[in-house]
C-alpha cells in the first residue's frame, strides 16, 4: 500500500532543504494516489507557483475550485478562482466560473464586473462567439436593465438560438406594455417578428 504519511514527510523534508522539484514530485505521488485530497492538491498548486510553473498551478487550482463549487462550497471556490486571477489575470475559465458563482450567490455587482472583464478579453481576442455567450449571461442576470437583456437576446440570435431569443423579446415587450410603453413594446415585437415571422 502507498505510504501517504511517509511521502508527505519526505516532501516536507525536501522543501526544508530547498529542493522544490523533488518535493513537487512527492506531492504529485500523493495526489496520484488520492486525487480528491484537495488540501494536498492546493499545496501542490502553491509549489507550482513557487517553481514558476503557472499553467500547472492554474490547472490544479481550477480542478479544486470546480470540485468545491460542485459540492456547494462556493466561498472556498471563489477564493481559489480569485487566487488564479491573481497569478494569471487573463485566465478566462476562472473569470467565467467566478462570475457564475457570484451570480448564483446574488452578488450581482461582482458577477457583472467579472462578466464584463471576460467579454472585453474575448472582444480583444476577436472571439465573437465568446462575447455573445457572455452577453447572454449578462442579460440573464437578475436586475439586468432592458438594454443588457436585449443585448443578451440578440446574442442568442448570433448563436442560432432563435426560439429563446424570440421568447425573450416577446416577454420584454409584454413587460413594457404593462408599464404603458406601447411604442417600445411594438418595436421589440417587430424585432422578434424579423427573427421568426
Average pLDDT metric: 93
**Total helical segments:** 11
Looking at the structure, what is the overall shape? elongated
Name the helix and strand elements from N-terminus to C-terminus, one letter apiece.
HHHHHHHHHHH
Structural class: mainly alpha
Portion in strands: under 5%
Termini separation: 68 Å
Query: Which blocks of ≥5 consecutive residues have pLDDT under 50?
Result: none
Which percent bin holds the helix content? over 70%
The beta-strand count equals 0
Radius of gyration: 23 Å
Report the sheet with the most strands, covering strand number, pairing sense and barrel closure. Answer: none
Overview of this structure, please?
The chain has helices at about 5-15, 20-35, 40-50, 55-70, 75-85, 90-105, 110-125, 130-140, 145-160, 160-180, 180-195. By secondary structure, it is mostly helical. The longest helix has 18 residues, at about 110-125. The termini are far apart. The mean pLDDT is about 95.
Which key phrases capture this entry?
mainly alpha, 81% helix, 197 residues, 11 helices, elongated
Q: What are the SSEs and their pairings?
A:
Elements: H1 4-16, H2 20-33, H3 38-50, H4 54-70, H5 74-87, H6 92-104, H7 108-125, H8 128-140, H9 146-158, H10 162-178, H11 182-195
Helix pairs in contact: 1-2, 2-3, 3-4, 4-5, 5-6, 6-7, 7-8, 8-9, 9-10, 10-11
Give a short overview.
By secondary structure, this protein is mainly α.
